[in-house]
Specification:
Blueprint lengths: L9 H9 L6 H12 L4 E5 L29 H4 L4 H23 L4 H11 L5 E4 L5 H6 L5 H7 E3 L2 E8 L4 E3 H11 L1 H13 L28 H5 L7 E5 L8 H13 L2 E5 L6 H12 L4 E4 L12 E4 L7 H9 L6 H7 L22
Helix pairs in contact: 2-13, 5-13, 5-14, 8-9, 11-12
């Protein structure tokens, strides 16, 4: 079975680099505000939105992978019911065990809160996000309950915060994190030491981390599903509720993503190269439906190969607060909106990838 990792075609990268135009924050804010003034806009976000929260993006400002040796685990590898598959799961869950806490503890940045303000004000009623970190939910959870958030935020590629076994049983990710720690006390002690010393690994958007060469993955124990055990079945095949490379997006999620684009008059795309087809096809569909599309991103995107798309190249965090103020006018003085516009951390990770966590002793 051959599955490829999504990339931006070289020809598109070359053309995009040649056409790059720098704009000022004032120009960008004014243009985006004019795009949103009429309201009823859908928003599509990607990994670039969460960079200021300390979660690095996959690709840099040239559109290529920051880690040239990036090798994700594919869906068929993770779920393979063989000894080989068990090895892939040991590798995945060890790296995820160390990489999940920084994602779990990450906080929304000014871009998340600015988008929450626009959403709360019904300027952008729906957000479709490729991110699996849950930060859009965190940014608006204090004013919207869970059903309202689920209606307004579509997680196109799932979430890291739930785990599902191969027989369909689900559990909270933190519960599974605790199970992993109990099954691997030496790794738990190592993880606790990383946290105590502030040496937490830099985490990819999917909660993965780089471990030193020679790490003994075969010694890591993946616990069995407790619900399966209650059904007299032993099963240690688990995956987070994230769409892996080679896995199809559920039809319900796919159909809802197209429905959201249909129901809105325009599409604002933020912080994504659109390398994954699930996101790129939504932009193509919006264009086919003659809906205005504005892309806000640093670096090339696959949108450069489409006609009729406007692109602004500037970090979202540099302009979106001002955009909200321009669009809402006096409405930005609303107590809830004002609080959102004052909120958000900025903890941008470095771009380098020479950063495996310290080598564990005896593991």
């Amino acid at each position: 079975m051959r599955v490829s990792v999504p990339t931006i075609p070289d020809a598109v990268l070359r053309t995009a680099q040649q056409q790059r135009v720098k704009v000022t924050p004032a120009f960008a804010a004014d243009r985006i505000a004019r795009f949103l003034t009429r309201g009823n806009a859908a928003v599509l976000t990607g990994a670039g939105v969460s960079v200021d929260s300390g979660i690095r993006a996959y690709r840099g400002d040239k559109g290529s992978y920051l880690n040239p040796n990036y090798k994700p685990i594919f869906y068929h590898e993770l779920m393979e019911p063989t000894v080989r598959g068990a090895g892939f799961r040991q590798r995945y869950w060890l790296r995820s065990y160390l990489g999940y806490p920084p994602v779990r503890d990450a906080q929304p940045n000014p871009t998340h809160f600015s988008l929450a303000a626009l959403q709360y004000s019904s300027i952008t009623p729906h957000i479709i996000t490729q991110n699996v970190d849950g930060l859009h939910h965190k940014a608006i959870h204090h004013v919207w309950d869970e059903p309202r958030r689920k209606e307004g935020i579509l997680e196109l590629h799932g979430t890291l915060h739930r785990v599902r076994c191969s027989h369909g049983h689900t559990m909270d990710r933190q519960k599974f994190q605790d199970m992993l720690g109990e099954a691997n006390p030496l790794w738990r002690a190592y993880a606790e030491e990383l946290e105590r010393t502030g040496s937490r690994p830099r985490t990819n958007p999917d909660g993965d981390v780089v471990l030193p060469e020679g790490t003994r993955y075969d010694q890591f124990i993946v616990p069995e599903c407790p619900s399966c055990l209650l059904e007299n079945r032993r099963n240690s095949i688990h995956k987070p509720e994230v769409i892996f490379f080679g896995e199809s997006i559920p039809a319900e999620v796919r159909d809802r993503s197209f429905d959201i684009v249909n129901r809105h008059d325009r599409l604002l795309v933020i912080g994504t190269t659109l390398a994954t087809f699930s996101a790129f096809r939504l932009v193509k569909y919006a264009i086919e439906q003659r809906k205005p599309v504005l892309v806000l991103n640093v670096g090339p995107t696959r949108a450069h190969e489409l006609a009729g798309i406007e692109t602004i190249e500037i970090p979202a965090g540099a302009v979106l607060r001002e955009v909200v103020k321009q669009v809402l006018g006096k409405g930005a003085e609303n107590q809830i909106i004002s609080k959102m516009l004052e909120s958000g951390i900025v903890k941008t990770p470095p771009d380098d990838y020479d950063d495996p966590v310290p080598r564990p002793t005896g593991l």
